[in-house]
Amino acid sequence: MLKLSSKKRKTSDTTGPPIVPNFDLISEYVEFVNINPAQQEKVLKALADNEIDHPKLFDSKSITADCMRRWGLANGTIACFKDNVIQYLDHLGSK
């Protein structure tokens, strides 16, 4: 039987607390990652249409870049969203 070290073993507490939907955070996140103001309304509509209601959802393995492209998001926008979640959450924690 294969035994995993505690570092490699997945536990349920590594995912953190459940995500509480908050679309206001998404609006703030769009500004935080410097999405072009001319594109913000279109981007926010795409996110709302796909029930993206918390920045942590961009870290989900279920929400891939291909999936986000089907929503009509550009590659640069996708990269900004996926690459800045931790920085944004740290920013929120420092408020």
What is the secondary structure topology, with strand pairs?
Layout (H helix, E strand, L loop, with lengths): L22 H10 L7 H10 L15 H6 L4 H9 L1 H9 L2
Helix pairs in contact: 1-2
Spell out the key features of this protein.
95 residues; mainly alpha; 5 helices; 0% strand
Tell me briefly what this model is.
The chain has helices at 23-32, 40-49, 65-70, 75-83, 85-93. The protein is built from 5 helices and no strands. The protein is an all-alpha fold.
How many angstroms separate the termini?
47 Å
Oligomeric grouping of the chains: single chain
Number of strands: 0
Would you tell me the overall average pLDDT? 87
Integer count of domains? 1
How would you characterize the largest beta sheet? none
Q: Can you walk through the features of this model?
A:
With 95 residues, the protein is mostly helical. The chain has one domain. The chain is 46% helix and 0% strand. The chain is built from five helices and no strands. The model is unreliable at 1-14 (pLDDT under 50).
